[in-house]
Amino acid sequence: MAMFPTQAVTTLAETKPITPQTLFQSDYQLVNVWASWCGVCRVEHQFLNQLAVKDIPLIGLNYRDSQTQAQRYLDSLGDPYQTVIYDPNGNLAIDLGVIGTPETYLVDRHGAILYKHTGVLDQQVWQSAFADYFD
Predict the structure, then answer these.
(1) Cis amide linkage into residue 102, ω under 30° from 0
(2) Could you tell me the pTM of the whole model?
């Protein structure tokens, strides 16, 4: 089973280093890879906001983006994330195996990656791949 990389990262809001594992507080959470320059990410963002309203634990991974643009994106479209890992050079994403944005990972409390979805997360994908973990 693949494990989430453990190198220190920073969050979008703070500059102090953390390990991603400190963010995995729930039995299951989604890690959503996104960027302000990603048009397809905008398409799925409204659905992410709907998940956040239902208290689905969402961690953002902001990929190869500027801090200012990323914050402006969240300020404009809403911030569904409990926290956002800021990965301006894509180092964490490379170790994670990201091939593009958006991507969504199902990660358990121990950092094990249980499922990876490439592309837009919508109601159909949610029902078929993720919903059972959060019901």
Answers:
(1) yes
(2) 0.96
Neighbours of 119 (CB within 10 A): 14
Residue 42 has what pLDDT? 96
- Edge-first strand listing for the sheet containing 10-11: 10-11, 83-87, 58-63, 28-34, 103-108, 113-118
Residue with tokens 């995995």: 24
Helical ranges in the chain per DSSP H: 39-53, 67-77, 91-96, 123-125, 131-134
Q: Which amino acid is at 97?
A: G
In terms of Cα–Cα distance, which of 110, 121, 134 is closest to 2?
110
Alpha helices in 5-61 (DSSP H): 39-53
Structure token pair of residue 24 = 């995995």
Structural contact between residues 98 and 64, judged by C-beta atoms closer than 8 angstroms: no
Instruction: Name the stretches of the chain with pLDDT < 70.
Output: none
Note the pLDDT tens digit of each residue in 96-111.
999 999 999 999 999 9
